[in-house]
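Name: Peptidase M1 membrane alanine aminopeptidase domain-containing protein
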Amino acid sequence: MSTYLVAMTVGEFQHIEGQGKIGPQIRLHTTPGKKRLERTLNYHIQAFEYFNRLFDFVDPMKKVDVLVVEDFEVAGMENWALIMYAEKIVFYNDHSTMMEEAVTVGHEVAHFWFGNLVTMKWWDDLWLKEGFATFLGHQLAADNYPELPSWEFFLSNGLERAREVDSLISTKAVLAPIQADQLDYVYDSIRYTKSAHFIRMLCDQHAYGNVVSDDLWAAFMDATGMDLKTTYSAWITNPGYPVISVATSSHPGEVTFSARRFIASGALDPNHLGCFGAVDFVQLNPECTGFMIVHYDRALFGKLLNAYRNKELTDVGRFTLVSDTAHLVRAGMSNIDDLVDLIVLSRKERSFMVLSPIADAIDGIRTWLWDSEEYVLSFHFSQFVEHMFNDTLQDIDLGRRELFLAKELRRKIKASTANKVAERDVVWNFMKYNWNTQGLARLLGSPTSRKRLETLSHTLSSFANSTVIQEAKSLFTADQRLTVNGYLRRMEERMTINKRQHELHSRNLRRWLAKRGYGTFFEFQKHNYGEQSRM
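Structure predicted for Peptidase M1 membrane alanine aminopeptidase domain-containing protein:
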């Protein structure tokens, strides 16, 4: 057993226990007085039964203890025979936490096969355990709890985070050399979510052993007789992902497409991947099964707008079009008109899958407008957004399966129309004046330091002010900066991208809004005078 899986605990606990037809005895421990334990116990019993059958390889543990910890920096940890969870994952009885709990339990139990029974040889191959566990946690929830929309949430949140990080120049490949002092940096959405697209079971051949990525390709070869390494290993060994450019051809009924690396800053990757043959076209990557961005020429995008308007695309297809367009606009590869046109066409949209990237795009636009001191333009854009989504919050269906999605959608829409920038500034000022450099030095390499660095990165990554990154760097000693350099590079790159948005899009957005009646300075003055007169 790998040493990182060893855990022990001492304390006063209460517990309940149970066992399924296939799997270990489960004992669930909490501090005294906690209730609602049966659901968590049943999730574990169901997970062990599900994976034992799925893998056709019974985990050797006869007993597994589960401990719910009040103060725990991560959602869960798969220690072999002593799984630990944060209380926030377990004790709240609504659809949001039910889904998070089901997926997290599936993730940690899946690690008993991917991570515990079969362990990566070194941290380079972290994706082997985290990618599989992430995928299988959602698969378990989808197969056993159909009322919980696990795959919708995986696409709209997990996949989007991975694509944002992987569009940065500073990103790393899924499979890359890792030093022991870099572990804080490698537990990210690239290893968890991007790698979740590469699924295969290795337990039978590598039980109680260590694996490397080549073992995965060998397992594929044995199962299919096909050499998949030549085709697919590039997705693991290279950073980033492609943008596929689709254009109409001179031959009627045909389109051509080419590919290159997608970079959010708009920098061009000199390695052009070539041009592929002409094909009949409907919508490329309509179910978002490929880790890519698709860029259409004007004629094809216009046809897709009509299909979007007429609901001829599936929910996932509409999600893909909105998400791809938002990424392309941010990179300066598409005009902001394309994105706001999609926002207009989404006025009567009620699908969480589609409105989630719409809300994220609105939030992004509002942030760079505020940071670039475009207050009048920001006011007009806010008017437009409120007009578009005035009825949405009241009209969302609250059917059983949609209950969580409706709550999450309300949260996203409210957040996208609120002024979160002022709150962000308050948080940053608090962090600056309460930062403990010496305390962090003692914690570097621990889950606690990773959480603090992630909070710092999340807070600062929406700024478009170049002085903020210098303030952030001053929080660390020279030695610490070497350790956290990856976080700092990502923050700096995101700030540069945010600052570039004003240069790329403010003029076109102002023109678009004015053309539709949202652009008079008189309205701005009237609104602000009214607000001041009521103070």
